[in-house]
Amino acid sequence: MVEVLFINCFFNFRRLMIDLLLFFLFLFLFIIYYVLVKREKEKRKKKNFYSIFFFFLIISKYIYIFINIYFFIDQEKFIFL
């Protein structure tokens, strides 16, 4: 019982680290893209901020699902949030 609890805790910790890594990756990519687009905005009309944000949000969601499948294939179940 203790071994199962330890293994479960390890997988949860690993999953938490991957979640945090993906969050910061998403944030980093979004900031870089927004800074690059901001230069273009000065030349022409403003683009929609929310469309850019949701575009990166959708991409990060697919990356998150792919990493869950890749790293947690040995587990019995997948949990897609």
How would you describe what is shown here?
This protein has 81 residues and is mainly alpha-helical. The protein has one domain. The chain has 2 helices and no strands. The model has no long low-confidence stretch (mean pLDDT 66).
Would you summarize the structure shown here?
By secondary structure, the protein is mainly α. The chain has one domain (2-69).
Keywords:
single chain, 81 residues, mainly alpha, 80% helix, elongated, transmembrane, transmembrane helix, membrane
Question: Helix and strand layout, with pairings?
Answer:
Layout lengths: L1 H42 L5 H23 L10
Helix pairs in contact: 1-2
Keywords: Membrane, Transmembrane, Transmembrane helix
Distance between the termini: 27 Å
Structural class: mainly alpha
Q: What is the 3D shape?
A: elongated
Mean pLDDT: 66
How many structural domains can be distinguished in the coordinates?
1
Rg, Å, rounded: 18 Å
Order of helices and strands: HH
